[in-house]
Amino acid sequence: MTEQIVIGPMLAAMASVVLTLSTRRFRRLQRAVSVAGGVAYAGAVGALVWRVVLGAGPAAYQVGGVEAPFGITLVADELSAFMLVLAAAVGLPSIAFSAVYVDPDNQAVFYHPLFHCLLLGVAGSFLTGDLFSLFVWFEVMLMASYVFVAFYGGEQHTAAALRYLVLNVVGGTLLLLGIGGLYAVTGTLNMADMARRLATPAAYGIDVEPVLGLSMLLFAAFALKAGLVPFQFWVPGAYRAAPLPVVAMLAGVTKKVGVYAVVRLYFTVFGGLSVEVDALGVTGDSPLALLGPILLVTGCASILVGGLGAVVRDTFEETFAYSSIGQVGFIVVPVGVAALADTEPLRRFAVAAALVYALHHALAKGLLFLVTGAVRSATGTGRLADVGGLAGRSPVLGATFFVGSLSLVGIPPLTGFFGKFLVFDAAVRRAAAGGSVGAVGVVVALLFGAVLTILYTSRTWTRCFWGARTPLVEDAVVDPAQVAILVAVATAIVVLGIGFDPVFEFADAAAGAAIDREGYVEVVDPVGGVEE
Amino acid sequence: MSVLLAAVVGGLFAIGTFLLHRRDLVKVVLGVAVLTQGANVYLITMGGIEQGTSDTVPVLATHGDHVPETADPLVQALVLTAIVISFGTTALALALTYRAYQENETMDVHQWR
Questions:
Q1: Which residues in chain B are closer than 8 Å to A143, comparing Cβ atoms?
Q2: Is any Cβ of chain B less than 8 angstroms from the Cβ of A434?
Q3: What's the CA angle centered on B87, arms B84 and B90, to 5 degrees?
Q4: How far apart are CA A427 and CA A412, in angstroms?
Q5: Where are the alpha helices (DSSP H) in chain B?
Q6: Which residue of B15, B72, B96, B112 to mutate against A (max A Cβ within 10 Å)?
Q7: How do residues A498-531 score in pLDDT, each as one tens digit?
Q8: pLDDT tens string A145-190
Q9: Do B98 and B29 meet the contact criterion of CB atoms below 8 Å apart?
Q10: Beta partners for A284?
Q11: Which of A147, A166, A181 is opposite residue B46, by nearest beta carbon?
Q12: Residue A36 forms contact with B (CB below 8 Å)
């Protein structure tokens, strides 16, 4: 009986919250505890992966011993494990970077507890098997991020935090509306039980039509969290305001929580539902038929808006904030392809492509935001115009930025190459199979987005790392501890790129878990819900 | 009962959305509070309000033989959680509003620099 391992990451995060709060008077100790907490989180995730992927298979933990569908269930399957690895891979370097980057006075009271709260919310969202708990864990994660956006307390920060908060409350309300509606329609909140009931609606007396609309309500809430066009407007303000290690987390991990929720709900929970779709000029027989075109359109729009926005920004933070709007597009386009796929292998392949791209983006964008932090603490500015010749001043810092941006562009053998390659492969397979104008248009949009990525990364590189040194760079003092952390992340990108096979196998297993509805139900609730 | 609740939910959402679009920051925060309360009433409605039995309302079994119409106990638990979360969020929003007032010396979002 090793189901208890499922709560490991959450316990590690929660213990870190308590310990960093209780050691706040001893600042050095608090920082050490916090980094140790990050290591413990990564360790717990590692143990979970060991159990779920390499050992006995998916596990479900029934909280308080109350069995599903009545109790709260925590489920760790390959998909959750993959997303947790992504969270730990960004979380650990970010927390270590915070300890040497954020002003010690600012760290003292609540920075570290909140950071672990963020990790706790992320782990909870990935592990929960209950729709309402998903809402609660989203709020835990968002509460911490509200405070981080307001962290520095200037007028721009307060304004950004208020906008971010109001928008997310509206998003949370939409989420509640969707969840409440689904409860009324299906009579359950447990995701596995709901999947079972939706697959055979007649047996449970379920009216299937409302589920389509409710699923779209949920999609709007998740798209807002993921920062997809047309819900992207909060992203630049919030990313400009929050401390940079936290921005690495926001861009790398919390955005992916929205994507994860879409994949989990649409493929696992609503996957077996057959309902007649006739909306927005789309006809089909499942919610996926409607989700697919919406994801493809919003994904392509995100790629264009983000890419075009990033090319004209004049600070590091804003360039990468717009860039992450564009990159989320690259993640949801293959999800859209998977939703429209008519064969099981193509669907599985496209979901795997999205997951690989999500991991690549988390690592690369996390690294780039941390590099921005290092540049900012060395020169005191993030304005592209005031920085120049950094590569000559600190070659190692330059090299880490180079690795991050090359990975973002997609140069082999870095992880970004495989991410982009798989995404293009999925889109081209769709275009080859269907051959419609829309499918070809998606490939064109992806190509255009890739060119824009090359434009803005090379623009940042030539302006800030090459060229004449500005006075600020001449006087810059680069912190070796910060650079060491950057080197570690850059090394991970290179190593994962060279030894890519296990990464793809893991993503493929996660994609298999995402579309394997019966398997998920079997893990959570082998006995089956009580018949009405 | 359901018609009445539907009207209440609709009204709360209308008021909340209207307040969210005001220029005065305090009204925006009030809009947030009203909107989340609307979602809570909606949750109660979605659970269904039915003629209770002494199984679902054990307390009332020993207080006379009449068991009134009651809401689904599960959604009541959910709404409690949602209320706590929306209270916390509203409190944080109010604190941020005060901070924004200190910095900009105005409550008008259009005059933010």
A1: 88-89, 92
A2: no
A3: 150
A4: 20
A5: 2-20, 25-47, 58-61, 73-104
A6: B96
A7: 988 999 999 999 999 988 888 888 888 766 544 4
A8: 999 999 888 888 888 899 899 999 999 999 999 999 999 898 888 8
A9: no
A10: A277
A11: A181
A12: no
* Three-state SS sequence of A270-291: CCCCCCCEEECCEEECCHHHHH
Nearest chain A Cα distance for residue B52, angstroms: 17
A216, A229, A273, A462, B19 from A296: Cα distances, Å? 15, 11, 21, 33, 34
Contact B82 A159 (CB under 8 A): no
Label residue A492 exposed, middle or buried (CB < 10 Å: 0-12, 13-18, 19+): middle
Closest residue in B to A149 (Cα) is: B96
A217 vs B: CB within 8 A: no
Q: Which of B23, B29, B43 is most worth mutating to test chain A (most A CB atoms within 10 A of its CB)?
A: B43
Measured at the CA of A218, the angle between CA A212 and CA A221, to 5 degrees, comes to: 150
Q: Is the Cβ pair A183, B92 closer than 8 Å? A: no
A155 interfacial to chain B (CB closer than 8 Å): yes
Q: Do A161 and B85 touch (CB under 8 A)?
A: no
pLDDT for residue A1: 52
Give which of A211, A216, A215, A214 is closest to A201, Cα–Cα.
Answer: A211
DSSP per position, A290-357: HHHHHHHHHHHHHHHHHHHHHHH--BHHHHHHHHHHHHHHHHHHHHHHHHH-SSHHHHHHHHHHHHHH
Question: For strand A282-284 and strand B49-51, is the pairing parallel, antiparallel, or unpaired?
Answer: unpaired
Distance between CA atoms of A420 and A339, rounded to whole angstroms?
Answer: 19
ipTM, two decimals: 0.90
- DSSP annotation of A470 reads P
Contact B38 A136 (CB under 8 A): no
Nearest CA in chain A to B27: A166
Joined together, the tokens standing for residue A513 give 């878990």
Residue A499 is given by DSSP the state: T
Nearest-by-Cβ selection for B46 from A146, A166, A180: A180
For chain B, what is the radius of gyration of the CA atoms? Answer: 19
How many residues appear in chain B?
A: 113
A290 CB-contact burial (10 Å; exposed 0-12 / middle 13-18 / buried 19+): buried
Report d(CA A467, CA A451) in Å as an integer: 23
Would you tell me how many other CB atoms lie within 10 Å of the CB of residue A3?
15
Distance CA A136, CA B32 (A): 18
CB contact (8 A) between residue B39 and residue A136: no
Q: Locate B46 and state its tokens.
A: 């979605």
Please give the structure tokens belonging to residue B49. 């309000």
Does this model's pTM top 0.95? no
Residue given tokens 């971010």 in the structure block: A164
Position A506: which residue type? F
Please count the CA atoms within 13 angstroms of the CA of A505 that sit on its side-chain side: 6
**Tokens at A16, concatenated:** 């870190």
Three-state DSSP class for A61?
strand
Enumerate residue ranges in chain A where pLDDT < 70.
1, 434-435, 526-532
Q: How far is B66 from chain A (nearest CA, A)?
A: 26
Name the E strands within A27-154. Answer: 59-62, 73-76
Closest CA to B20 of B34, B41, B10, B8: B34
